[in-house]
Amino acid sequence: MNATGPFWDDNVTAWPTSFDDASINDEYADFEDEDAHRSEILYEFITNGILLNVVGVLGIMGNVISMIILTRPQMRSSINYLLTGLARCDTVLILTSVFLFGIPAVYKYYQSSFLVGYYFRIYPFLCAVVYPIALMTQTVSVYLTLTVTLERFVAVCHPLRARSLCTYGRARIYVVVIIAFSVVYNLSRFWEVSIEEEWHPALNMTIYTPVPSPLRNNHLYISIYIHWLYLFFIYFFPFTCLAILNTAIYRQVRKANRERQKLSRLQKKEIGLATMLLCVVVVFFICNILALIANVLEAFYGLIVDKMVKTSNLLVTINSSVNFIIYVIFGEKFKRLFFKLFCTHGPFCGVGRESPDCTFHEESVVLSNGETLRSYSIRAANANGSGRSGCGGGKPVPCVYYPARASSRADRANRNWTNNELTVTTSLTSGCSKFY
């Protein structure tokens, strides 16, 4: 997203329909200007009016689904808390992009009377509030991505320190600190916009126009805050850290893949999660590099390439919309839980040991006397967040209680406590579960 305020150069008048220039050359030049203007309007309509709005709507849906899944009890972890915060932030950023860029682009192309009230009466006041919020959420998104990468770096490259550093409580602190920093850093943005009122004879109505405030026109403010600080805090510093940390993570992942047979189940899980987040960061780089180039051109060369700015706004919106797709492709547990919650039929919807709820795994055993027993493997924390299940009517689901003290070595051997699971033998001939 461009830091200079892309709404300063909005046109409030309709395209010219007639030319009364005496010179043929001037008339030809005016036609060229009109064609260039129409070309810019068309490009903005395609990139921001169509693509940005469509991607934004789909991105909001994906982020909402991500938040639902990542906040499930069985998904509770420090990394998922950070990803939930990132999804919320991305949702707000998409909404601001639609209000600032998507809807105005549709009006500029169609000149629809349906959007006249929004463009001339609502949009100017939204700019004064929504644009600072957009930059705040962009800052939060950048540093949450950096925090997620730092968390994965510790978990993959320094696993012994991960237990103390990568905790749920610390993740909440990180999110609060990032939000506080983003609000304080972008607070002056609320004083960058002024609203001017004027009469528009063609529309026969009073219109409002957002214009740069005296603070926004201050050359020292533009040089230090708009250009240098923005480039450092939003691009140079986080991009450098992301490049260094992800290079280290990538080397560790390659090393682990070569020795995959020696890895434990937990280590394989951490490597898989690190691979997924590497893809998130790669997409982040790709979608934000054009915005970096646009800001560098403006800060150091005074060049504002309108099409580049509009394309970069689209890419920033895409970056906030595609994380759900990455989670589904690379996150096995996320994918299983998604199919279980939102797909009533499918290959991933059955309940078993690998189901997201991790409720129970059933095996039938036939004894010598013909009685059928079923063995259920139950995790300590089920989908409801507790270790108890009712044993009423309907299909019998075993309850989990603390087992009685074993009376013999054979009984103790029959208990399976591997991976925090309790194996319970239940007789189908009885009304409720029996625990040994």
UniProtKB/TrEMBL annotation:
Gene3D superfamilies: Rhodopsin 7-helix transmembrane proteins. This is Receptor. Keywords: Membrane, Receptor, Transmembrane, Transmembrane helix. Residues 62-327 form the G-protein coupled receptors family 1 profile domain. It is found in: Membrane. It comes from the Eukaryota. Signal peptide: none annotated. The chain crosses the membrane at residues 50-70, 91-110, 122-150, 171-191, 225-250, 271-294, 314-330. InterPro entries: GPCR-Ligand_Int, GPCR_Rhodpsn, GPCR_Rhodpsn_7TM. The lineage of its organism: Eukaryota, Metazoa, Ecdysozoa, Arthropoda, Hexapoda. The keyword Repeat does not apply. Belongs to the G-protein coupled receptor 1 family.
